[in-house]
Design brief:
Length: 140
């Protein structure tokens, strides 16, 4: 028997900070119950994917100042439609059918939340994207 919905829910990390209120809107509830755990689960993949994104663009990112690195992260996930869709697929692939139906009924607003949360998550970890040692030139 296919137990995909329960398997997906079982592997998600439990978030202790998130509070639920009756007054919450559908989007906020979806964000807290579905998106936040999925983003936390997928974080190592997002880090790896963004590293690859940097490398495919000739490592320009490594020579930027921190504010410009943050802008680069944001622009990559906003302007690069192919990259954005790839990241969005990594998130959508973790939805149960029921969650997907909720998402589909308001995908535009939820896409905006999803991408903003992903951008902030990657920005908060910008220190992980240092120039690989093999690319550093040693001055002697």
């Amino acid at each position: 028997m296919n137990d995909r919905p329960n398997d997906l829910l079982r592997i998600r990390p439990e978030l202790k900070k998130t509070k639920q209120f009756l007054s919450m809107g559908t989007e906020e509830r979806f964000q807290n119950e579905t998106l936040r755990p999925i983003l936390k689960l997928q974080n190592p993949l997002f880090i790896s994917v963004f590293r690859n994104y940097i490398e495919k663009r000739k490592g320009v990112f490594y020579d930027l100042s921190v504010p410009k690195k943050l802008a680069y992260i944001e622009m990559g996930l906003i302007k690069d439609q192919k990259f954005r869709n790839s990241v969005k697929g990594m998130i959508l692939g973790q939805f149960t059918v029921k969650e997907y139906q909720t998402y589909a009924s308001n995908s535009s607003a939820l896409n905006k939340r999803m991408m903003n949360m992903t951008i902030e998550r990657i920005k908060d970890q910008v220190q992980l994207f240092e120039k690989p040692k093999e690319l550093m030139v040693v001055n002697r």
